[in-house]
Amino acid sequence: MTQSAGQNGRGTVFPIVEAFGFPHDSESPAAAKAWNDKSCPFAGGLCEKQRQYGFGYCSVTYAAKWNDGQQRTYAVCDHRLDGPPVDWAVTDFFGDRPATLVSEVAATLTPRLNIDYVAFADDPSAPDGTSLIAIETQAIDLRGGGVGPAWRAWEADDVDNWRAYFTAEAERKGRRDTVDYGVNTGNVYKRLGTQVAVKGEYLKQIHVPLYVVMQHSILEQLRSRINFVPVEPGSPWDITFAGFDYDGALDSDGKLRLDLVETVRTTLPNYLEAMTTSGDSSALREDFVAKVRKKVKIAPAQANLFNI
To answer: Are 158 and 98 in contact (CB under 8 A)?
Structure first.
C-alpha cells in the first residue's frame, strides 16, 4: 500500500495508518467497537501496546530509501501478522486436516527460546504421533522520535491538526520541532536474521519445519542482506518465508488486508551459508584500512603506533 507524498512525507502525511486494527479514518461499526474497547482484532483481547505504552497503532506510513523511496505502509506490531497470515501457514502445511494452534511456546528455558506459534495435529505416521510446525511472525520496529503526538491527535479526533501536536511536544520538551521517525531496518538483519538461524537450528534437530511470516517488503530487505538460495518446488525444505503486504483492499469488517505476495522455501544449510558469507566478493584489505584511517583521521605514521 503506497501513498504519494513526496520523497519523505514526514511532516506532511499523517504517520499512523491503522489504529486498533482498522484504518485510522474507518467508519465501520467493527472499527468503532475496537476503538471503544481498545482491543486487538488480530490477537484477540486488549491491545498490548495500549496497555504497556499508551499507544494502539498497528502500522505507519514511511518512505524508506531501500524500498524505492515511496510512502509505504509498515506493520510495526508483531500482532499485525496474527490472524490470516498465521492461518495461511497452518493451511499450507496441514491442508484440510484439523490442527491446533498454540501461542508463545517456551522451547527452551536456558537460554530462553520462545516460539510465537506452534500448530500440531495427531498423526500416527509422525514421530510421537504428532505432526507439527513452528511459526514466527515478524513486523518491524520504529526508530527515532516516534509518532506519539500523532496518536494523541487521533485520540482527540483532531487528525487534521496533527502536526501541531508535534510542535506542542517540542516546545514542552525544549527540542527541535520536527517529525523524526523511521523504520528500524537494521533489526531486520541483526534480530530477525539471527533468530531464524538459532530457532531454525533447534527446530531442525527435532524435525519441526519453521514458517517465518512477515511483511513482503521486510522479506525483501532480509534477502538483500542474507541472500539464501531457495529450493526447487517440491524439494525438501526446513524454512518457509511467507511475505504478505498491504494493497489497500479491505476485508468484510473494514480492516486492511495483508495478502500473500511471495513464498520462498530454503534449507537451514542454505540459510546459514548465506548468513555467514559476505554479499560482496570483492572486499579488499587496502579499502578497509583506508576507511579506518579516514575515520579516525590520523596520519600513516601515527597509525603505526596502534598497529593499524
So the answer is: no
